[in-house]
């Protein structure tokens, strides 16, 4: 397993961390994480905040790791199977507005933002315009005033 980090701009948070396992590679984009904790609750043997690296994809079967990664609502976690295939988007594509204004989007998506055009399968988009990571929500504005889990249950 390797833990590679791409950091295109000095003195900024890493944009993407890559955790390579035998059958699956998990990527993590810290700026998009909204701390829904689906990963640590869903598969604590793989996603353990007390270990380094905190993602250890070889601690579970690749299909189970993929299933838990797909639970990440923000898309901060993504995966790539060793066979080179891509993570499939949900069909049909869905858009759901949270009570606090954020948009939870799942499907085969093309998102245009500060980083250019990106293919996505999951994203939580800012509903108030205050995010420093547009178009993604980063909890910096009033649309992210509540806990993600609590907003999901409303």
Strand/helix succession: EEEHHEEEEH
Number of strands: 7
Tell me the number of helical segments per DSSP (H or I, 4 or more residues long).
3
Tell me about the biggest sheet?
4 strands, antiparallel
> How much beta, percentage-wise?
25-35%
The strands making up the biggest β-sheet line up spatially as 1-2-3-4
Distance between the termini: 39 Å
What is the helix fraction of residues, given as a range?
Answer: 10-25%
- Low-pLDDT parts are 5-14, 149-154
Q: What's the alpha carbon Rg, rounded to whole Å?
A: 15 Å
Structural class: alpha+beta
Identify the overall geometry: globular
Q: How would you state the average pLDDT, rounded?
A: 86
The multimeric state of the shown protein is: single chain
Account of the protein in words:
The chain starts with a strand and ends with a helix. 12% of the residues lie in helices and 29% in strands. The protein is globular and about 40 Å long. Mean pLDDT is 86; it is low at 5-14 and 149-154. It has helices spanning 38-42, 62-69, 148-153; strands at 2-6, 16-20, 24-28, 77-81, 94-97, 103-113, 116-125. The longest helix has 8 residues, at 62-69. The strands form two sheets. The chain has a four-stranded antiparallel β-sheet. It has a three-stranded antiparallel β-sheet with strand order 5-6-7, with no helix packed on it. The chain is built from three helices and seven strands; from the N terminus they run βββααββββα. The chain is an alpha+beta fold and 154 residues long. A hairpin with a 2-residue loop joins strand 6 (103-113) and strand 7.
């Amino acid at each position: 397993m390797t833990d590679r980090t791409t950091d295109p701009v000095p003195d900024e948070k890493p944009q993407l961390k890559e955790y390579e396992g035998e059958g699956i590679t998990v990527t993590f984009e810290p700026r998009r994480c909204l701390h829904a904790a689906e990963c640590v609750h869903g598969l604590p043997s793989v996603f353990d905040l007390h270990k380094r690296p905190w993602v250890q994809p070889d601690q579970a079967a690749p299909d189970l790791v993929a299933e838990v990664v797909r639970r990440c609502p923000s898309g901060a976690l993504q995966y790539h199977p060793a066979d080179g295939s891509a993570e499939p988007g949900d069909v049909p594509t869905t858009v759901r507005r949270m009570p606090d204004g954020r948009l939870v989007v799942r499907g085969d998506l093309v998102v245009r933002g500060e980083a250019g055009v990106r293919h996505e399968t999951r994203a939580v988009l800012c509903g108030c315009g205050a995010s420093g990571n547009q178009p993604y929500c980063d909890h910096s504005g009033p649309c992210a005033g509540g806990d993600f889990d609590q907003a999901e249950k409303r």
